[in-house]
Amino acid sequence: PWRRCWCVISPPDEKEYQKQQKELKKRSAYDRSHVPVLKGDIKFYDSRKDGKKQKKAQPIATITDAYSAYAIYPQAKSLIDASTLLKIEGRVTVHSDPPSSTEGFIFIMPEVHPAVSGFEMLLRFLFPTWDSFGLYGRPGRLVASVLDPRSLMFAMPKHKRYGYLEILDVSTLTLDEGSTSWSEREWRKRLKDATGTRMNALEDGSRSHSRSASRSSARLSFGSGGRPKVGFADDGNLLQPGRE
């Protein structure tokens, strides 16, 4: 059921951020190890309160460690421009008695202000959310590559065929040890990895076919450095997809 509430999006802790920056300055220039992504949270309250009273108030629920946040568009084309419906997936804590915490999702519909379109309200909510949880390349540059698993555009098909995975690709994952206990987040990551592997295989197959069909393949085989391939960096890793 829908519930009207006040939402507060908080950035990562400033002290933790300053501490991380100091540690990064001490690193060697050749150190390319993974840098953990600092994350904030989203809290929902019954009502808005001023100043420090808001921080002391007990929230209804809190979202932490979100791993996806995106708009949900209605089926009717006429309703798209006015829609503000979005979905956030991550760790959801409900502050009941006793409190409960689980991985799940929440649908949010920000209220539209006068003279502000639904699309603009979506952006006003989504960008702070992406920044708070380090999603899709934020708070840096938004990643738009179809080859980068961090991107909202990841695996968008270039041709008429939609999707890359076959039934066998998915059924193979179910045979992995421990797959029965995987969370939604883990399944999402495994499916992305499988999709990336399939994309690389299809790209390599089409490339070898085009070379064998070309008369000048022998002369062109030592040409350019190759096309970009799908990268498999962990979430939050700022490495770009590798090249051949």
From TrEMBL:
<feature type="region of interest" description="Disordered">
    <location>
        <begin position="198"/>
        <end position="244"/>
    </location>
</feature>
<dbReference type="Pfam" id="PF25381">
    <property type="entry name" value="PH_26"/>
</dbReference>
<feature type="domain" description="Skg3/CAF120-like PH-like">
    <location>
        <begin position="1"/>
        <end position="154"/>
    </location>
</feature>
<protein>
    <recommendedName>
        <fullName>Skg3/CAF120-like PH-like domain-containing protein</fullName>
    </recommendedName>
</protein>
<dbReference type="InterPro" id="IPR058155">
    <property type="entry name" value="Skg3/CAF120-like_PH"/>
</dbReference>
<feature type="compositionally biased region" description="Low complexity">
    <location>
        <begin position="211"/>
        <end position="222"/>
    </location>
</feature>
